Amino acid sequence: MKLCFFLLSCAALLPLLADTSRSPYGVCAHICKGEQWNLAEPKFRVMKPAGIRWVRNGFTWEQAEPKQGVWDYSKLDIVAETAKRYQIDILPILAYDVPWGHPVSKHLELWKEYVRRTVSRYGKQFRFWEIWNEQNIHERPGSKIEPEQYVQILRAAQEEIKKIDPDLQVVFGGTAGVPIPYIEACLKVGGAEYFDVMNIHPYMERGLPEKMTELIDPLFALFRKYNVKKPVWVTEFSWPTHRFPPVMTPEVLREALKHFHLTPETAGIAMIRNPDLENERGKLFAPNDYTLGVFPKRKEISYADLKNLDVRRYPLLVPSLTQAFPREYFADVVDYVKRGGVILHSCGLPFYCDAKKNAEGLWRQVPDPQESMMKALHIQWLAGWKDNVPKSGSIQAAPGLKLPAIRFRGSERYLSDGNLKKGDRLIPLYLQKNKEFCAPVVGVYRFDSDLKGGVIADVNFPISGVSQEVQGQYLPRAYLTLLSRGIERIFWYKFRAEEYDPTCNGHHFGIVHRDYSPRDAFTAYRFLIRMCPEGSTRPEMTREGRLCHARWKRPDGIVVHAWWTTEGEQSVRLPFAAREIYDYLGRKQSLRKTVTASGGILYATEPGNREKENLK
User: How far apart are CA 491 and CA 531, in angstroms?
Assistant: First the structure.
């Protein structure tokens, strides 16, 4: 059954509000915090021509009441007036405590005053109000709120908002991920009575857009269980484009190899490549081979080759580009090190977990840590989640070493000498410091015990984002996937990429550059809105293997199809003579019966008379 985006089965519970856009297309944009209010106009100026009608932004307590008893709405007034001029609808977030109102659940009268003042001031213009943001996690000290406490806060806000105007809509605070147990706990204590719209943040930073259905479908199942019939919004999701340079640079490798009297030019290196493990999260997220172009004498081998690997010819071994290694072959690794071989491993803990073949014959990680494998190689590790050690810090080269700076926030894991035997040494290359704590995150294990070789290990686990091209491909795929599942309104996080730090994901979520010039994601978003404008029917989406197809009808009566693949390319024979064919960036393609689908959507329109000649 084809339904309009906004005329879903729960539409009766969501009355159409005057002067409020029905568009499903939104973005998150920082336009209020601090001095960011002056960025509202340049952002809105770029959004409006693209058809982006919704902006999500905090109208936080500390902005409205910077000092107890001092209420200052001057900057929020400017933002509201600017939004009105550009016909932008804002989804304000009422959130966060203040020193005199912490925790909110114990200061509900103060919280209600903030809600009442803010909503009374802007309620005629902004008709939807979100209560908190990601309350299910520790975003900052004291910010996590247990379900029972959150429902108290939600109820207090809802009661104040409905007193002001019963038609105003209360939006559940967007959850980090889709935490079914947390949401269910809220429903169990009557939370469904106090919101009109459910709200989630199904981030898939290391997954394909189509996999978001695996997060969303259980939510709809939970709603059926509790007979909750309310619309669902997604108010944050994205794929960042930050990039981490490799830690194991030629300079670092050269320094590490000195401890074994080896050089990259002369040392033979054997590598085991396992595409199943490397591509388990998709080829786009596969680890980089940091040995390419560094070791001229390089050879790829199989697991079975380990037993007879010649240490003199190949004194270096890269057993995996991931943290997983099949335990069934591990004894051969230990024997190799006993014979003087050196293990080289970057991006995570070496031999952290086992790997086995599944029923389809594909290698997959077995997530349980394999302490016994690491102990057999005299390796020990510490981690912020299991040991009393800091979860971050500043990373610096060990004293006396001139090595490239590591530019990211730090590691949760450290190397330790706890399993070393007499004669063994752990030689730091990079140390992470946090106050009085200091431990290696890149180092050399040099053995002279029952083991005679060594391990060069880098436990940092930075994961780069996608390319800007892939970000542009993912955006329309994600929107069509979410809309087809019944999500009513969707906000990309975020509009502008600050781009100050190339390694910080938070600086690279945006769809426009720092100077507001378009990224591919902006161009793709603008064209998606043109091809699937407000008032279109809900996309009907099907998937056969890696080929995805969506179909909908626009308000002008034209039927639009979209094809893409989750991996690689695939030929598609069109079931009709296309009127127009475009790629995901809006570039017109030649008309033909057979097209090639890939990661970027191909749009094709059916022939037929337009009910309205021009696209709005």
Answer: 18
Structure-token pair, residue 445 = 């294990």
Closest alpha carbon to 466 in 600, 375, 275 = 600
Which pLDDT tens digit goes with each residue over 577-593? 999 999 999 999 999 99
Contact 241, 511 (CB under 8 A): no
Q: For the chain, what is the radius of gyration of the CA atoms?
A: 28
Q: Is the pLDDT of residue 566 over 80?
A: yes
Is the Cα torsion angle 343, 346, 350, 356 positive or negative in sign? negative
Span 138-162, average pLDDT = 87
Mean pLDDT of the chain: 92
Task: Give pLDDT, residue 610.
Answer: 54
DSSP readout, 105-125? GG-HHHHHHHHHHHHHHHTTT
Enter the pTM of the model. Answer: 0.82
Of 510, 544, 546, 524, whose CA–CA distance to 479 is shortest? 524
Beta bridge partners of 573: 594
Whole-Å CA distances, 61 to 52, 58, 70, 118: 27, 9, 11, 9
Task: Quote the DSSP letter at residue 24.
Answer: -
Whole-angstrom Cα distance, residue 115 to residue 95? 9
- Please tell me the distance from the alpha carbon of residue 68 to that of residue 506, in angstroms, as a whole number: 31
pLDDT digits (tens, 9 = 90+) for 303-316: 999 999 999 999 99
Pairing of strands 489-493, 540-544: unpaired
Residue 217 three-state SS? helix
Question: Per DSSP, which regions of 328-421 are E strands?
Answer: 342-345, 353-357, 363-369, 380-383, 394-397, 413-416
CA dist., res. 277 & res. 283, Å (int): 10
User: Largest alpha-carbon pair distance within the chain?
Assistant: 84
Give CA–CA dist 253/259, Å, rounded: 11
Q: How far apart are CA 421 and CA 200, in angstroms?
A: 50
Q: Which single residue is written with the structure tokens 């008709």?
A: 127
